[in-house]
Amino acid sequence: MISEQSVDFILSNNLSEYKELFIQFCGPEKRRRAGEILSICGEPVLHMHFLLNGIVKVYTNSSDGFVRLLGYHRQNTLFVLDGFCEGKPAIVTTQAVTDITTVTVTRQSLLRMCEANPAFGLDLASYVGDVLRLMCFDAENQSVSDVTTRLINFIFLYMKSEDYCQTQCIPMSYENLASAVNASRIQIARICSKMKRLGVIDVGRRCITIKNPNALYDFTK
Asked: pTM for this one?
């Protein structure tokens, strides 16, 4: 189960040391509106983006069209890493949550940056490793963990989202949650009913409210 020391689904300031380098070699800056899609799963990607400010979410879609959140990017991070393989289809979808400012990053601009500052190459590799670790954690969670653990891991992820910070609610039905964690509605209903009885959550119409976040950590023990 996810812990306080486990993988962080929010990437922020990982490459802040190189912000001016990105601006120098990858400008000009471009403003994008909240809701804009920057890559779509299955469609070719030609470049990456460096996020100067704002928030971007990364997600996939289940077979029934429900969005399964994978993580967030905040300032001074590189996203749409599918662009490393210029022209190949994206594996995930990325979308601006807020208004954002970016610069466009290509393989050629990264090469020039590495030539200008060799230390950047090592830190870039470390950053890609952080992203891969996040993706591997998600894959392991979906393939190895039981349904209860997958659900609680997802709840922790959603609790870090901007939507939750604003509403203090997970606006999903049992069907939505089942799609998010690759489970059946009946399984999710049983787990949520137990958590409700124990005072961990409250369940309304398409709304899950977390009453005791600390108890979530002990729920699968």
From this structure: 0.73
